[in-house]
Amino acid sequence: MGGKIRGKSIGKHTGSGHMGTGLLQAAAAGLLLALCAVLWLPGAARVGVRAAEPDRDRLLAQIDQARGGTFNEFAMVARVHPERPGQDAVAEDAVIEIYVKAQGGPGEENRQLLRFRSPRRLSGQVYLVVGANSWLYQPGLRRPLRISAQQKLFGDAGVAEAAGIVFGSNYHIQDLRRENREGEQLWHLFLTAKSPGVSYQRIELWVDPQTHRPREAVLASLNNTPLKRLLFTSYAQFSGISACRELVVEDLLRKQRTVIETLELMPRSLPDQLFRPEFMDRTQTLLGS
Fold first, then answer.
1. How many CB atoms neighbour CB 43 within 10 A?
2. For residue 243, what are the contacts with CB-CB under 8 A and spacing of at least 6?
3. pTM value?
4. Residue 226: predicted pLDDT
5. pLDDT tier, 157 (very low <50, low <70, confident <90, very high otherwise)
6. CATH (residue range 56-277)
7. CB–CB of 128/134 below 8 Å?
8. Domain limits of the chain?
9. CB–CB of 24/162 below 8 Å?
10. Phi, psi of 215 (to 5 degrees)
11. What does the alpha-carbon distance between residue 246 and residue 250 come to, in Å, rounded to a whole number?
């Protein structure tokens, strides 16, 4: 479902894309997915053998690019669908716009802004992620609120997963192995966060060694508690690049899941003011819509 949805296009002021260390968020995104060494997750699989290692820093950058982070600046639209089997009420969907600006040089951080398009009750709500810092703005507030990127955005998806977890700038590879999973050889990476402000301090990541596409990630807290599982279930072409089309976010504590589906992704030039918390109340003006 890589086509446009009804509503305003996010492609205004489109600029040319070039290689960078940006991300996708899932989803929506990730919208987004969007941020986690001695001890690892309780019961975590350690079956596997050490393999001839690639360049670790380069590998994380390649993984970010394989999820859709090929453009330094881009905009995307994602649908967020909470799956609630057995419940009488039909789960409400959300559509969010995600704007991303990757690191442009030394001292700069990856920046993501998320804006709700629907449901109507959340229209005008804006989330901003700059490095390890996050803010929320909604109509009626005098100023944005500082929040954690683990804060729930919609359904089981947190701000970090929807905005997109940037592996290259936020994590080190603590260990790397080649592992056979269901007859397929994958890279099994153990990641630790570079700073205590990163939302998820530890991540286990399984990656296709040929395409560098992530297949699965387990996000954990500092005390090794598994919090969420991300399943990168499908990829598609958007604006000439391959990106994650569907990301499943499983809440391992609440035993629920939410699907983030990328509907639209394209390069777009974005003003720096868009990613400053003091301008969050002017998001509509800065985007021209």
1. 8
2. 24, 67, 68, 70, 235, 236, 237, 262, 265
3. 0.78
4. 94
5. confident
6. 2.50.20.10
7. yes
8. 56-277
9. no
10. -105, -40
11. 13
